[in-house]
């Protein structure tokens, strides 16, 4: 699911916040980085669109709503990658191209995760390689 620029910006604000926010809080954070300030009603309309897309949830708070992400940034990106992969009738060339395209550190991290999934010892890493921080 492709996101428009404001949809993506709202999602980034909520993923970074790690908690649900009111529209005025989202607006304040968005406008800190914006060249041109976003209107409250524009942000509210786009947030409601993200609720309909099931990317955000909302909970009532007095006369307003708090909005939060239904899944983490990592879960969302994983879903996008799996959806893109599912669009190919033959996944082998897509997976090969992906493996050739990622940088070496990412390729080694992926090999490490695949080895762990298969119940094997992690792949021996080259000298100087630093493992990624744990996402657990």
Structural summary, described in words:
InterPro entries: BlaI_family, WH-like_DNA-bd_sf, WH_DNA-bd_sf. With 136 residues, this protein is mainly α. It folds into two domains: 5-69, Orthogonal Bundle (Arc Repressor Mutant, subunit A), CATH 1.10.10; 73-119. The chain is built from six helices and three strands, in the order H-E-H-H-E-E-H-H-H. Strands 1-3-2 form a three-stranded antiparallel sheet. The chain starts with a helix and ends in a 19-residue tail after the last helix. The model has no long low-confidence stretch (mean pLDDT 88).
SSE topology:
Blueprint: H1 5-17, E1 21-22, H2 23-33, H3 40-52, E2 56-61, E3 64-69, H4 73-86, H5 91-101, H6 104-117
Antiparallel strand pairs: 1-3, 2-3
Protein name: BlaI/MecI/CopY family transcriptional regulator
InterPro entries: BlaI_family (IPR005650), WH-like_DNA-bd_sf (IPR036388), WH_DNA-bd_sf (IPR036390)
Pfam family, one: Penicillinase_R
Question: Would you summarize the structure shown here?
Answer:
The protein folds into 2 domains: 65 residues, Orthogonal Bundle (Arc Repressor Mutant, subunit A), CATH 1.10.10; 47 residues.
């Amino acid at each position: 699911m492709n996101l428009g620029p404001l949809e993506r910006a709202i999602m980034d604000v909520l993923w970074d916040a790690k908690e649900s926010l009111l529209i005025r809080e989202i607006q304040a954070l968005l406008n800190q980085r914006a060249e041109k300030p976003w209107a409250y009603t524009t942000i509210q309309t786009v947030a409601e669109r993200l609720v309909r897309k099931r990317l955000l949830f909302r909970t009532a708070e007095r006369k307003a709503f708090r909005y939060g992400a239904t899944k983490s940034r990592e879960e969302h990106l994983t879903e996008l990658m799996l959806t893109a992969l599912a669009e190919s009738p033959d996944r082998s060339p897509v997976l090969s191209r992906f493996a050739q395209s990622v940088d070496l550190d990412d390729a080694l991290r992926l090999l490490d995760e695949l080895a762990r999934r298969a119940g094997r010892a992690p792949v021996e890493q080259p000298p100087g390689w630093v493992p990624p921080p744990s996402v657990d």
